[in-house]
Amino acid sequence: MIHYHGTPIGGTRQDAARFLMGRHALVSFYRPDDMAAVLECCQSFVMDNGAFSHWRAGKGEIDFDAYVAWTLEYHRHPAFDWCLIPDKIDGTEKENADLVRRWQGLMNKPKGVPVWHLHESLDWLEWLVDRFEWVALGSSGQWATPGTPDWWQRMATAMRVICDDQGRPRCKLHGLRMLDPEVFTRLPLSSADSTNAAVNCGSLSRFGSYKPPTAGQRAEVIAARIEQHNSASIWCGHQQNSLTI
Q1: What whole-number distance in Å separates Cα of residue 91 and Cα of residue 22?
Q2: What whole-number distance in Å separates Cα of residue 240 and Cα of residue 235?
Q3: Average pLDDT of span 123-135
Q4: Of 79, 52, 50, nearest to 67 (Cα)?
Q5: CA 116, CA 202: separation in Å to the nearest integer?
Q6: What are the CA-CA distances from residue 234 to residues 46, 94, 160 (Å)?
Q7: What is the pLDDT of residues 75-125, one digit of tens each?
Q8: 196 sits in which H/E element
Q9: Which CATH architecture has domain 2-244?
Q10: Among candidates 9, 10, 14, 13, which has minimal Cα distance to 45?
């Protein structure tokens, strides 16, 4: 499993470069501050359309054409893995399907990964799984918070669509905002992301009495604790269902 750490990273730029060295990163169209360091330091990176940040900031939809141009600027870099196809967090299934089909219609485009939002239909999920090598899973609607009992119930329903009778996903899966060991160790994800290290390296309270002195060191500790865990090899529905009780 690939652990993608969301950027930008807190602390000094030297701290950020040191943190990113040899790691995997996610760079957002909304905040591409650390792109130069990512290109030089990371094993690999993915590009995020910034829809979640735009939505949370109340800024509406992203500029589709500007995002495409941004991805084309970097997609030939050897560390580039893929980019998220533009989506709308609180959009209807039709709105998001239209964005996926618009992307498919582009003549010149990098490798794109669609997002299936948990509030969308299982039929749409089936369509995506059948047509794409990778599908990203995005928490949304009444299932906006990963790890809650209701979220696990919805995820179990989705996994029955995605996986074969042996619990093996029929495509590779990326978990958006799922880089929590309590979540990704129970799912057969090929990758996941979060801004945990970037956001919480400034939080002194989570480290108790023995605090690493700099934000960069704290980010290193958070990331190392995450990276020692791997995702599940298969979906074990009977075991996962106990999480919802």
Answers
A1: 36
A2: 8
A3: 98
A4: 50
A5: 32
A6: 24, 31, 12
A7: 999 999 999 999 998 889 999 999 999 999 999 999 999 999 999 999 999
A8: helix 196-200
A9: Alpha-Beta Barrel (3.20)
A10: 9
